[in-house]
Amino acid sequence: MSAVRILVVEDEPVIRLFVACILADAGFQVEAAANAVEALRQMGARSLLFDAVIIDVGLPAKWGRRARRRIARDAERIADRDRERS
Q: Which DSSP string do the residues of 7-35 spell out, in sequence order?
């Protein structure tokens, strides 16, 4: 089975690196984005979905809301994919 894929979205570089390193050390496949725009690009550019997204709730409102809506839409696709794997 492949590693769980996690996207970390955090605008503070030190926090983003800290969270990404902890998750990677725990065996997760981690990608990071500095803001919601970058996160949306990463989510749109990947043919595979992320299994989880850790997002800073303090991101600027407009782009943060767009990212959260995208994550909610992808959640159903992730659930469908997981059901197919079972």
A: EEE-SSHHHHHHHHHHHHHTT-EEEEESS
CATH topology for the 5-85 domain: Rossmann fold (3.40.50)
Is residue 39 within 8 A of residue 14, CB to CB? The reply is no
Q: What is the pLDDT of residues 38-82, one digit of tens each?
A: 888 888 766 557 888 898 877 766 667 777 777 777 777 767 777
Spatial distance between the Cα atoms of 24 and 83, rounded to a whole number of angstroms: 25
Domain ranges of the chain: 5-85
